[in-house]
Amino acid sequence: KKFKCESCSSSFTQPGSLKIHIEGVHEKIKKFKCTHCSSTFTASQGLKRHIEGVHGKITKFKCSHCSKSFSQKAHLKSHIEGIHEIIQKFHCGSCFSTFTRMRDLKMHYTT
Asked: Where are the annotated coiled coils located (predicted)?
């Protein structure tokens, strides 16, 4: 089944695609805004291509100890705690091994 645009000769297989076409081409509605600049787009794919092509891989959270950067604050926190602060909180009761995370100690016990 084809969905035809009444304003031009374009046709689509999905009604949602026709709606996006009408809003973007004929009504000039640009719902997708870049958070890094003032560019706007009619479709999410256009915004995605723009960000990848113009802004590259954006990483907002940079480690102050090394050159690594992360897209999420929680990942940066985990990196700093695990790599730079080497807080060895979890001790093995059978040997002298210490670990920064409980899951690593549990893994140690299973091996």
From this structure: none
**Is-same-fold flag (3-55; 61-110)?**
yes
Domain 61-110 fold? Double Stranded RNA Binding Domain (3.30.160)
41: DSSP letter: E
Phi first, then psi, for residue 15 (nearest 5°) are -65, -30
What are residue 3's DSSP bridge partners?
A: 12
pLDDT, mean of each 10-residue run, the chain (111 residues): 90 91 87 85 86 76 82 84 73 85 88 81
Q: Using an 8 Å Cβ cutoff, are 37 and 54 in contact?
A: yes
Per-domain boundaries in the chain: 3-55, 61-110
